[in-house]
Amino acid sequence: MIKHFSVLYVGNIDLEDVGIDGAPADGRRYPSHRLAESLDTAAQAAQLMDELGFYALWMAEHHFQREGYECIPNIILLGTHLAARTARLKFGCAFNIVPMWHPLRLAEDYALADILTDGRIIFGVGRGYHSREVETFGAPVIDNDANRELFEEQMEVIFKAFNEESFSHRGKRYTIPPKVEYRGYDLEDVTLVPRPKHLPVEMWQPIVSGRTIDFMAERGIKGVVALTGETLVEGIFERFREANAERGRDLALGEDLALGLGFYLANSQREAMERLRPYHDERYKWFAPFGFVRYADELGRTWGTPGAPARTPFIEDGVQQKAWVCGPPQDFVAMLKDVERKYPGLEHVILHWAEGMPRDEFMEQIRLFAAEVMPHFGGEEG
User: Fold this and answer.
1) Is the pLDDT of residue 382 over 80?
2) Would you state the pLDDT for residue 118?
3) For FRET with 368, which of 54, 60, 107, 132 sits at 20 to 30 Å CA-CA?
4) Which CATH code of 3.20.20.30, 1.10.3720.10, 3.40.50.720, 3.40.50.80 fits the domain covering 1-56+207-382?
5) How far apart are CA 318 and CA 82, in angstroms?
6) Distance between CA 262 and CA 277 in Å, rounded?
7) Are 376 and 33 in contact (CB under 8 A)?
8) What is the pLDDT of residue 222?
9) Closest-CA residue to 287 (of 268, 312, 266)
10) Residue 291: its pLDDT value, please?
11) What whole-number distance in Å separates Cα of residue 36 and Cα of residue 12?
C-alpha cells in the first residue's frame, strides 16, 4: 500500500530559455551567487513539504555543475540544516556518490547527522556517472569495472563501521587501521565515533540497469526506480523480489522499493503535457547523453540497445511509458491505485521535479498534489 509521498529535487536553479530549441545545456554557465540559489530553493521546498505532510525531500550530490542543473555538493550537510528548520520531514540522500568519499568520512558524517536530526536523514549510496566530478576526485567511473570494485570495497568498510563496535579492514584500496604504533601499542582496530543512533541503517541505492540487484539483496539495501518505463519497472521489481527470496527474505512485490514518477497536474492530459513539455525537454537535453532514457520498445528492448530507439524522448513517450503522469488529479489517483494493486508491497512514491521547471510553478504543483491526490492513499506515519 502506498503510504509515503516524497519529492526528488536534484538541485537545479531556475533556468531561462528552456526547451529542446532553447539554450544548449553545455552552453549554460552561471555565477556562484546564481548557483547558490539551489540552497534557498531546497529550503523553501522543505518548509512547504513539511506543512503539506510529505514524507521526504530527496536531494542529489553533484559537483562542478556551473550549468545549473545539479548544484548541491553535500546533501547530508544540507539535510541536517533543513531538518533544524522543519518539524518532521525526512531528507533523503539520492545519492551520496561513494567513490568520491573516503568511506569512513561518509560514515562519520551520516552518523553525526542521524544523531543530530534523530533519524531524519535517509542514507543513500550511488556509484556516480559524471566523469567530470568522479574522475576529478581521483576515483574511476569511465572504467566501470574499476568503479564497481572500488564501490563494493567502500561499502564493506561502511557496513563494518556502522555495525561493529570496533573493526579492521584489509582490502585492495583500504587498510584500516594502518599498521602503525599508537601510544605505545600496535594499532589493530578502530571505532566509528559516534556510530549512528538508529541501527541497522536504512540504506537506499538507485536501480538503473538492474545489475546491482544481487549486491543490494545480499546486503539488505533498498532500491529506487525512477522515470523508468512500466515494462522495465515490472522486470526490475520482479527481479528484486526474486533476489531477496534467494537470500531468505520473503518480500511482497514492490516492498523495499520506491517508484519515481514525473508529473504535471492540469485540467486535461493535453494541457498538462503542453505545460510540462519545455521542462521535460530541458531535462533530457542534459540527461539523455548520460544514457538516462529508461524506456522499452514494443519488444521489451531498452532504448539505446541494438534495434531499439536511440533518440531523445518526447513527453508523449514518457506518458505512454507511464514514467510521466499528466492530466487531472483524479487520473493520477486512478493510475496510482492501479500501481498499488500491481505492487502490493510498494509504500514509497517519489515525485520528480523536472529540471527546467521554475520553483514557483513546481511549488504550486505539489500544493495541488497534496490537496487532490495524497488524501486518497494511506497517509504519512512519520
Assistant:
1) no
2) 98
3) 60
4) 3.20.20.30
5) 32
6) 12
7) no
8) 98
9) 312
10) 83
11) 10
User: Is the distance from CB of 336 to CB of 259 less than 8 angstroms?
Assistant: no
Q: List, by residue range, all CATH 3.20.20.30 domains of the chain.
A: 1-56+207-382
**pLDDT digits 0-9 by tens, 72-86:** 999 999 999 999 999
3-state helix, strand, coil in the chain (%, to 5): 40, 15, 45
209 — pLDDT class (breaks 50, 70, 90): confident
Between the alpha carbon of residue 180 and those of residues 172, 184, 316, the distances in Å are: 18, 10, 61
> Which set of grid coordinates corresponds to residue 245?
527470496
> Which pLDDT value is given to residue 174?
98
N-terminal to C-terminal alpha carbon distance within the chain: 15
Q: Residue 260 corresponds to which amino acid?
A: G
Q: Is the pLDDT of residue 380 over 80?
A: no
SS3 302: strand
Query: pLDDT-derived band of residue 379, with 50, 70 and 90 as boundaries?
Result: low
Contact of 324 with 280, CB cutoff 8 Å: yes
Residue 113 grid cell: 547527522
Neighbours of 31 (CB within 10 A): 8
Cell (9 digits) for 209: 540497469
pLDDT, average across residues 45-66: 98
Nearest alpha carbon to residue 252 among 260, 241, 244: 241
Task: Provide the residue type at 362 as one letter.
Answer: F
Reported residue count of the chain is 382
In angstroms, rounded to a whole number, what is the distance separating the alpha carbons of residues 236 and 254? 10
Give me the percent of the chain exceeding a pLDDT of 90.
95
CA distance 346 to 295: 21
- For 125, residues 6+ apart whose C-beta sits below 8 A from its C-beta are 93, 95, 96, 98, 151, 155, 158, 203, 204, 205, 221
Average pLDDT over the chain reads 96
Q: Are 163 and 199 in contact (CB under 8 A)?
A: yes
